[in-house]
């Protein structure tokens, strides 16, 4: 059941991010942001209360649609709220939720679900969303949408120099991440560390959090070099995971390096996308969301094929191939 819910949620984000963002480009930003958060709250509340599996699936799909729109809006909103010279740092703060959710949110939700039941977890998510609505009404300014004369088509945004390389880097990098993260249990079992999954992921999460701070401090001046550093660190981590059989310390080192590479990745890619797209940043962000969710789906599918054909030892090598592709795409990004 949990797998189906996750897949349907991701499918909602994947299918809705681009068309919904494009259709609402002329809308004022704060009402749109509030609508997406309220939709997320309602979807979680229905999930918590319904006894119907079909209704719950539909609610998860709506939750994914809301999340896809939210993700597309956040980067542009952060840039508009900040001075130009601090735009990257503002985006780093806005996008900190991704590694925070991986390192803290998922374990906390799982623990709460085991302690009090999964329905309470979804109910609390709805409550948190409603509190967020109040905070936005009190503190977050509103901005106008795009004027009709300032709205390039989706094809025109896609053709903007620099947008396609960022999308390619995102797809390759996140696909490599999900190859490893989705199948971390068999991968660690192959290294004789089946009982240490929690500690390995804790190291990954802690270093990802540190990466957020580093990214926020450096991104406005060093976006392009940091992108290469992130890919290079991930390549090093994947190589360690590929060759360090029976070496627990090396696996922990790989998790540490992997977390440093991944923690700021969402901010790097979305900042690069926003800079390349200019006024059409929200649509470009929706494309990033779509690429990210394709990579989530693809990580499960491609990882499963590798696992069946080559065993868990083949997963890091698959990641290495993808990261080489990410490096080539990063070379084509705008300077």
Automatic annotation (TrEMBL):
Gene3D superfamilies found in the cross-reference section: MFS general substrate transporter like domains
Transmembrane segments: 6-24, 31-51, 57-79, 91-114, 120-138, 158-180, 200-219, 226-244, 250-271, 283-307, 313-333
GO molecular function: transmembrane transporter activity
Subcellular localization(s) per the UniProt record: Cell membrane
Domain Major facilitator superfamily (MFS) profile as annotated: residue spans: 1-335
Highest taxon of the lineage: Bacteria
A Pfam family hit: MFS_1
Coiled coil: none
The keyword Ribonucleoprotein appears for this protein: no
PROSITE patterns recorded: MFS
Gene Ontology CC terms: plasma membrane
Membrane topology: Multi-pass membrane protein
Keyword Membrane found: yes
Keyword vocabulary terms for this entry: Cell membrane, Membrane, Transmembrane, Transmembrane helix
Full protein name: Major facilitator transporter
Lineage: Bacteria, Pseudomonadati, Pseudomonadota, Alphaproteobacteria, Rhodobacterales
């Amino acid at each position: 059941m949990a797998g189906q819910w996750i897949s349907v949620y991701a499918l909602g984000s994947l299918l809705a991010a681009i068309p919904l963002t494009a259709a609402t480009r002329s809308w004022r930003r704060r009402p749109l942001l509030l609508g997406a958060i309220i939709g997320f709250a309602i979807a979680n509340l229905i999930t918590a209360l319904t006894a119907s599996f079909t209704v719950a699936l539909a609610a998860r799909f709506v939750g994914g649609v809301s999340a896809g729109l939210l993700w597309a809006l956040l980067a542009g909103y952060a840039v508009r709220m900040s001075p130009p010279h601090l735009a990257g740092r503002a985006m780093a703060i806005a996008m900190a939720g991704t590694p925070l959710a991986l390192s803290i949110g998922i374990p906390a939700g799982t623990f709460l679900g085991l302690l009090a039941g999964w329905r309470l977890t979804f109910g609390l998510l709805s409550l948190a969303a409603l509190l967020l609505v109040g905070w936005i009404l009190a503190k977050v300014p509103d901005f106008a949408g795009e004027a009709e004369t300032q709205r390039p088509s989706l094809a025109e945004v896609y053709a903007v120099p620099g947008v396609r390389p960022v999308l390619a880097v995102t797809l390759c990098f996140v696909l490599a991440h999900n190859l490893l993260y989705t199948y971390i249990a068999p991968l660690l079992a192959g290294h004789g560390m089946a009982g240490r999954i929690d500690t390995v992921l804790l190291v990954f999460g802690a270093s990802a959090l540190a990466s957020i701070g580093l990214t926020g401090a450096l991104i406005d001046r060093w976006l392009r070099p940091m992108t290469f550093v992130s890919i290079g660190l991930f390549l090093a981590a994947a190589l360690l995971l590929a060759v360090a059989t029976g070496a627990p310390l090396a696996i922990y080192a790989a998790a540490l390096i992997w977390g440093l590479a991944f923690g700021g990745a969402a901010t790097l890619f979305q900042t690069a996308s926003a800079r390349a797209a200019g006024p059409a940043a929200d649509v470009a962000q929706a494309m990033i969301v779509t690429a990210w969710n394709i990579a989530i789906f693809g990580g499960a599918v491609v990882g499963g094929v590798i696992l069946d054909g080559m065993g868990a030892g083949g997963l890091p090598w698959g990641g290495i191939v993808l990261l080489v592709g990410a490096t080539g795409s990063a070379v084509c990004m705008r300077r």
